[in-house]
């Protein structure tokens, strides 16, 4: 990640999140990775969104960071856990006010009649909160993918790419090289 930032990769924290519903049907979308560490790889969302509902039904996910200019990709797989209220409150408070209002107003992943309906919801929240604090909605919070498998891909000439996998084995991490 540090190398991608230093290289000027556009949105180096943009990650594709893949989930699957209770019947195993996959879906994927881009989200912004907001942190990583002992709690896992963290992103925030409306907890009533499609992705959150799929994670509730099948609490495993895959992430893919792709830095094309560097010919690098990192894949991460593992169970997903919900972050506590304190972490979600802290991150929500750090967001720009308009992003807080939008998160509060949007019924994410729900059908809307048109754009005007969304703009009305946002306008209503602006009036409701005035100049005061925008509280984090109970339906908005952080999720973390706790890695059990990493794959590091480095592009090489003639498609002779490097693929190195680290997989948790209960005692630590087992490393293997995969054919390109």
Briefly say what this structure is.
The protein is of the alpha+beta class and 180 residues long. The chain contains five helices and ten strands. A hairpin with a 7-residue loop joins strand 8 (149-154) and strand 9.
Walkthrough of the structure:
This protein is an alpha+beta fold and about 180 residues long. The protein has a domain at about 1-95 and about 135-145: Pnp Oxidase, Chain A. Helices cover about 25% and strands about 40% of the residues. The protein contains 5 helices and 10 strands; from the N terminus they run H-E-E-E-E-H-E-E-H-H-H-E-E-E-E. Strands 1, 2, 3, 4, 5, 6, 7, 8, 9 and 10 form a 10-stranded antiparallel beta sheet that branches. The chain is elongated and about 55 Å long.
Oligomer: single chain
What is the correct CATH architecture of one domain? Roll
CATH class of one domain: Mainly Beta
Report on the biggest sheet. Answer: 10 strands, antiparallel
User: CA-to-CA gap between the ends?
Assistant: 22 Å
Number of strands: 10
How would you state the average pLDDT, rounded?
95
Shape: elongated
Class of secondary structure makeup? alpha+beta
Rg, nearest Å:
19 Å
User: Order of SSEs, N→C?
Assistant: HEEEEHEEHHHEEEE
- Tell me the CATH superfamily of one domain: Electron Transport, Fmn-binding Protein, Chain A
Distinct helical segment count: 5
Low-confidence stretches: none
β-strand percent reads 35-45%
CATH domain fold name of one domain: Pnp Oxidase, Chain A
Measured as a percent range, the helix fraction is 25-40%
């Amino acid at each position: 990640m540090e190398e991608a930032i230093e290289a000027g990769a556009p949105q180096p924290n943009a990650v594709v999140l893949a989930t699957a519903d209770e019947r195993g049907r996959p879906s994927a979308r881009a989200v912004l990775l907001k942190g990583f560490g002992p709690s896992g790889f963290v992103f925030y969302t409306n907890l009533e969104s499609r992705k959150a509902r799929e994670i509730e039904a099948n609490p495993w996910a895959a992430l893919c960071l792709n830095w094309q200019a560097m010919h690098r990709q990192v894949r991460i797989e593992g169970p997903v856990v919900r972050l506590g209220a304190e972490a979600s409150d802290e991150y929500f408070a750090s967001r720009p006010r308009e992003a807080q209002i939008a998160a509060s107003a949007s019924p994410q992943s729900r059908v809307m009649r048109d754009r005007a309906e969304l703009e009305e919801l946002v306008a209503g929240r602006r009036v409701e909160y005035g100049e005061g604090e925008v509280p984090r909605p109970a339906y908005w919070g952080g999720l973390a993918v706790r890695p059990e498998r990493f794959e590091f891909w480095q592009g090489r000439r003639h498609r002779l790419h490097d693929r190195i996998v680290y997989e948790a084995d209960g005692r630590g991490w087992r490393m293997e090289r995969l054919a390109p």
